[in-house]
Amino acid sequence: MWVIEITVGLAEDLLPFKYLGILTTDARLTRLECSYGKNDNENRAVSSRHTPYTGNINSLPPPPSQHLRHSTPTPPTPLSISSRQTMNHKSPRVSYSPAILAKQLSKDPLLHHPRPTHPLVWCSAIICLVFCLLLIFFGVATLIVFLVIKPKYPSFDITNASLNAIYFDSPENFNGYFTLLANFTNSNRKMKIRYDYLDVELYFGDRLIATQALEPFSQRPGEVRLEVVHLISSLVYLPPNPAIELQRQVQSNRVKYNIRGTFRIKATVGSARFSYWLHAKCQLEMTSPPSGVLVARSCSTKR
Fold first, then answer.
1. H helices present in the chain, as ranges
2. What's the rounded Cα separation, in Å, for the pair 254 and 267?
């Protein structure tokens, strides 16, 4: 069972025609109401309610004729047909004029044009873009330099050493004289380096017993430089256990020393310069003084 409501307005000057009926499942149409007029006072009932009608929808009675107020015809309004499954449930039908619809659509924010971007946003975006491009450029340049030049760390080694004296003024005060020949090698073939700071320290075990600073110098690519380092210990305090261990090694003709070097290096590649710190460690085994010579060594260099 379907409820059919037909509202037809042919022009603004004509009275609207309204037809309400029921269409059953056996194609029978029952006319409930047929009226026309702009309000309830102007409505005129054409037929009584619940009058069975056995015809089809196309044979509905035409709306009553009306006299035109103006000679110029206007386009017909659209036909509105609404169907309902039950008679008791009716939803209100709200109609809006074109002016109201246009005003509502103009208020919709989705239909508005986007606001222009603030200049600060554009400036920030341009700065970020330039920064990213510079970062990429320097990264690629560094990679190219690394692949072409293949930089290497300078190496530190001890070519020779001599232990001239070890003696104690007291059980805890140590005196000694140690000389070594240091070998500084620039393994790079396309990079110049300069040692801005050089410091060499002598250890017995983990106890510092002598230190010596060297004068700064430069090295060309592939250059080897030998430096004589004199390490003198004068009245150096040694705790009882290290002092006893040193005396035992002197008696056994095997004295073990540790050398630690700290260097600040400045490298030059074309017009680019960069600096870094380099640390060297060497383990030496000497014979007893006064004619102690180098027996074994092991050196390593790292940043």
1. 98-107, 119-149, 240-251
2. 39
Distance, CA of 53 to CA of 60 (rounded, Å): 9
* 75 lies in the same domain as 171: no
More confident site: 195 or 83: 195
Single-letter code of the amino acid located at 65: S
Last residue of a domain, one of 50, 75, 93: 93
Look at residues 279, 282, 261 and name the one whose alpha carbon lies nearest to residue 199: 261
Candidates 151, 147, 148; CA nearest to 186 is 151
Task: List, for residues 14-47, the tens digit of each pLDDT value.
Answer: 445 454 555 454 445 444 455 545 444 444 444 4
Cβ burial of 185 (10 Å; 0-12, 13-18, 19+) is middle
| Overall domain count for the chain | 2
Q: Residue 145: pLDDT band by 50, 70, 90 thresholds?
A: confident
Asked whether residue 164 falls in the same domain as residue 295, the answer is: yes
The answer to whether residues 281 and 165 belong to one domain is yes
Phi, psi at 182, each rounded to 5°: -90, 140
126: in domain:
no
CATH of the domain at 230: 2.60.40
Can you give the pLDDT at residue 270? 74
Q: Does residue 80 surpass a pLDDT of 60?
A: no
Domain region containing 34: 2-93
Average pLDDT over residues 54-71: 50
112 assigned to some structural domain:
no
State yes or no: pLDDT of 140 exceeds 70: yes
Among 226, 227, 231, CA closest to 258: 231
Question: Considering the domain boundaries, does residue 146 fall inside one?
Answer: no
Do 89 and 172 fall into the same domain? Answer: no
Q: For residues 274 and 267, is the Cβ–Cβ distance under 8 A?
A: yes
